[in-house]
């Protein structure tokens, strides 16, 4: 029997136990910090030469020259031709749906005029260049290429640069094919903190970008934090999580498999089920025991469920919703009869999967919304990756003569209240000039 | 004569000189880092008791109990009644305009249904609680209270908590009055890294929030970086900057004063003018020499102009626009005859002040758009503070039975391609269930 914790919101120590269950602090120790700081210094100082050295050291192949680091567009296209037709069709279908959803997220500028002719507004522009980090080796996920690249291209980013390490020189055809179908503009076979540094500062061969997105190991995450400010970054993600809220009416095998689908990512992944039907919690526990031995990734799933999984008994629906809002999960399944009746009461969640037929896995690949989502309760203040992450805004102010004269009076009073007389006089000039 | 650098885009070393001029790296040294880390540890461990100790040590007054740390709403209202009527009217006018502009930034959710009944969408919700840091002492700016607080309230943040240090127990009536008119819900007389830690983790008396915004010194900035992840933060700002693009037709005294208005903030502030009219650059230089001796903050202005100011000669309008896009300035004045004809070519800027009558100072106080803007070239990838910083999004997916059956095929192919069979089986269950 897999030991998965059982909690009840009625327990006197529930608050302490749930806090304990959710506790997660990513630690990048001093050694990692120092290694990353040195790699960044080297790449800034020596450019391509440093990239060649690190690739040789960490990825165990030695580029003859910096030109060898680039994966030409023809190579991405070749990968597209090489993968099985079923995978090509699936990637195409997924890309199309992700693109269609992303189109709804595009925002455009606006402005309004006041009676005196003053114009106020907001101009929206895409980033010039974005960089997409894609992990190599075992954790190379083509779906992640689609999810990071497509919103950038929909936003209008002129140049999207992908970096992907190729340990021992090995290329992942599915990843290259995904890059092809996503519209990646240039790709380079580099990885680790050195790739992040190259994207942030540029080298002779790698163009510097304005923002770096995409998942990576602790070195990549630490490097992203370090270059933040020089460039933008997306969130540094914690382990993946799912919270299933179920009324007891969904097949317990389905729910068990949904919990597994999160737990199979890694031992730190978190799978939680909350229901007010105690019998249902028992049935899901039985399904877990029955199905676990049939899973390819049984050991990882079992370790994750033991360490960070839970079945939570709530008092009722309202109580379950409170649990969901407290956890603010990355993925939330509302596996209930009428999800539309309650979705408006969910205040914090990365993505909400509504109804018994919406397996979270559909969202991971092809439903349309992004699978890059806020983890570790950060849905309290952050959003899924989206087109808006590749657009930015500029405020617009155009004061008419009359408007300027009027505004300058208010500005002058407040500026003098703050002791900033150059501000006041700069405003007053326009007031006088308009009279 | 004030020595302000003269550059020309035609100079062979222009790229190196402009890069040198813009170079800015905020350094929080190891000592600051360690002090902040210890303060955060103490506040997490000892809560209110630590806040009382630090207030006593750093602000030189000793609260009798934690209750003394709160500034009751009645105290904010009293400040509102106490300030001169002209300031009250100016704050009210500014607040009203900032609110009206912010209302345009509110976004709401959307959804669409596909032919098979599958629903996709995005739900938009406000943060539950936000924390606003307001510096005390000399740099206490009431305008900054309005600019940070009003977008949060417009977004629908249920509880907005302000913290403001009161060195030697001294309260700034204008700041409290601004908090009153902005709708701040609770205020506490605490500051420094300890206030940021209290907002991030909560204490017995200070409610933990979901995001911390607002300016502060190096300790505050370092603390914000440290708690990022536990809570959201706004950008950590660098020195303030202005770039004026002028066609030579604006009164040179006005432009000189606009440059001063930025330079008077502090010695690191950056004021740059670019024009293709060499004679105009000379006339502004003459205005600078003429007006500087009349300025209250002459020494700061002079130091800032010497260290980081510049007059740049461009070849023509197109060249000047290239300069602006490279600098990606926090504040951009387009002091030209027809700004609307060129604003669409500005790709990167925090706020754009269009036309001869739009002094940047109007935007600092009362035009409506936010004065919290991306500095140090970060306008390449980030935006003014706005309502969107206090809202977040959740993706919505509700697959119909038919939709689920269809999507599960694609998800299954891609999941198996990634070796994630629990994902595949979770999707497949729904496909089978629908048949």
User: What is the overall silhouette of chain A?
Assistant: globular
Total DSSP helices of chain A: 16
**Assembly of the depicted chains:** homodimer
Rg of chain A, rounded, reads 26 Å
Which structural category do the helix and sheet elements of chain A fall into?
Answer: alpha/beta
The figure for the number of domains of chain A is 3
Give unreliable regions of chain A as ranges.
Answer: none
Biggest pleated-sheet summary of chain A: 6 strands, parallel
Q: How many strands appear in the DSSP assignment of chain A?
A: 15
Summarize the largest interface: chains and residue counts: A-B, 122 and 122 residues
Query: In the CATH hierarchy, what is the architecture of the largest domain in chain A at level 2?
Result: 3-Layer(aba) Sandwich
Average pLDDT, all residues of chain A: 95
Strand content of chain A: 15-25%
Percent of residues in helices of chain A comes to 40-55%
CATH topology tier name of the largest domain in chain A? Rossmann fold
- Please state how the strands of the largest beta sheet of chain A are arranged side by side: 1-12-11-10-13-14
Q: For this structure, what is the CATH homologous superfamily of the largest domain in chain A?
A: Nitrogenase molybdenum iron protein domain
The N- and C-terminal alpha carbons of chain A lie at a distance of 85 Å
CATH class of the largest domain in chain A: Alpha Beta
